[in-house]
Structures are given as C-alpha cells and as structure tokens.
C-alpha cells in the first residue's frame, strides 16, 4: 500500500523510535512510505497527496489533527499510539500493542468509524474528535497545568496521567459549580455543574473514562454531567483511578446529536485545546452549537492470539 506517515518525533514512550525506524518497519511490511514530521509545516500538504492509508505515529493531538483533515475522504487512518493519554487509540483498543503487531494486522484490520464534530460560535468554527467540555478539565487547561504536565521531566506516560488526575482532584474538591444553560436535541439539560463533557469516545483529557457506552461512529454525543451531588464520587474516582477506572460509568449522562449552549465566559475546551483562543474576539454571552458532521475510518487490527 501507499502509506503517508505523519510522525510526531517527540511523543510519548514509543515516540523515541525515530522516523527512520518507523519507515523501515513499514517498508519491511511491503508498504511504499512517504514520511512527514508533524513538527514541519508540510504535514497538511502531505495529506493531500495520493495514498491508500495515512498512518499516524503520535499522541491524541497529532491523531486528532490528522483525523479532522481526513474526515469524509474515504482514506483510512491507522494510529501508532505513542502519546501520553492516547484517548483515541485507547478507545479503539490499540494501546499497549507493539507497532510491529499493529502494522502486520493492517491488511486484515476492521474499519471502525469515528465521529468528527463541529463547534460553531461567533468567533468561528472548529472541528473536534474527542469532545467539547466545561468545568474542571477546561479549568486545568486554562491554568497552564496541561502544558506543564506535557513538559514535565517525568518520562513515563502513566506517571504524567496520574499527575494530571491529581491536579484535577484538587480542582474538583475546591471548584464552585458553573451555571450552564444548555439543550441537547431540544431537551433542556441546564444546571450547575463541576464537569460538563460532550464526548464522542469513552475517554477524554488525562484518561478520564466518562462514557463506557459510547459507540464510535454512531453520530451521537454522550453528554456526561457532574453536579454537586456527584462531587464526592468524582473526587473518589480521581483518587483511585488506577484500580477503579469504571467508577464514572454511573454518572448522569444523556445521548444526543445537537448540543446548544450559552457561553457566559467560562473556560471551554475542544479536544485538548481551549476554545475560543485567548486572542479571539469573544464577547459573552454567546450561542454555541455543536454536532457530529462527519466521520473518519480507522484501521483496528485484531489482537494477536497468545
């Protein structure tokens, strides 16, 4: 196959594999490879060139950027997860599997559709893959803690995730709930929330397992709501996440296709970035609309039998 490889050379535990090593791996499997570093401006143009498959070696940020540009084009994406959280790859069952195993499995892999959402506001539009949210996670990003975690001297991704969740726990203990006016498919879901996340995959942020019933590519959001009544449950999860990843499964949630909310100036994120940007001309109040508008296919090889 003709494979365009987008590689983030600085990502995670397997990011230490340099581009040449990954190219050699793909070529050894019989593929014709076009390499492009995600750190260079040319990665967007590389996606426009003919290919049978786009492989992405990187974390959620790199995978999401590629997925947003490949949506609706009919060319599958194959993730080689090497980031810190790897929410997208984790949702697809690709984490903690050697690159060699994933590459060998591409010819017979299942094609799994992943939804791509679009958020619209007075300051513009932006596509997203993981979700849109407000509350403790958005506030963590706004504080700059997210950037400090990425630049931490801690080398192991699991330790970085644990660090981020501990920071979230502190904020969840102290934060005052946000008053959020919102509707989902016309149904009023307004309230006071510590966390409000509309997600298209089960995981968001630093491996927060929010939507266990989320089905990739079904065209719906899972809107997970944490009010004052669920504060203790959220804090307990953030304290014991390693052994109790399923605990958030019982949080209140709704399923729908079209989310409308009134932005009053609170921190808000799309995937792992704040939205609107700090330099955007954003005046509150403002009407925000989010919906699933497209999809992209990912290759998901079957796990190797032991």
What this model shows, in words?
The structure is a single chain. With 306 residues, this protein is of the alpha+beta class. It folds into two domains: 2-115 and 296-300, Probable inorganic polyphosphate/atp-NAD kinase, domain 1 (Rossmann fold, 3-Layer(aba) Sandwich), CATH 3.40.50.10330; 117-294, Tumour Suppressor Smad4. It contains nine helices and 19 strands. It has helices at residues 19-28, 43-46, 60-70, 87-91, 99-105, 136-142, 145-150, 157-174, 231-239; strands at 2-7, 32-37, 53-58, 77-81, 110-121, 124-128, 131-135, 178-184, 187-188, 191-193, 195-199, 203-204, 208-209, 221-226, 253-256, 258-263, 268-270, 273-274, 286-300. The strands form four sheets. Strands 5, 6, 8, 9, 10, 16 and 19 form a seven-stranded antiparallel beta sheet that branches. Strands 15-14-11-7-17-18 form a six-stranded antiparallel beta sheet. It is globular and about 55 Å long.
Task: Tally the beta strands.
Answer: 19
Shape: globular
Number of domains: 2
* Beta-strand fraction estimate: 25-35%
Order of helices and strands: EHEHEHEHHEEEHHHEEEEEEEHEEEEE
- CATH topology grouping of the largest domain: Tumour Suppressor Smad4
What is the averaged pLDDT score? Answer: 90
Just name the CATH architecture of the largest domain: Sandwich
Q: Please give the largest β-sheet.
A: 7 strands, antiparallel
Unreliable segments of 5+ consecutive residues: 146-152
Structural class per helix/strand content? alpha+beta
Tally the helices.
9
Oligomer: single chain
- Report the span from N to C terminus: 28 Å
What is the CATH first-level class name of the largest domain?
Mainly Beta
What is the CA-atom radius of gyration, in angstroms? 19 Å
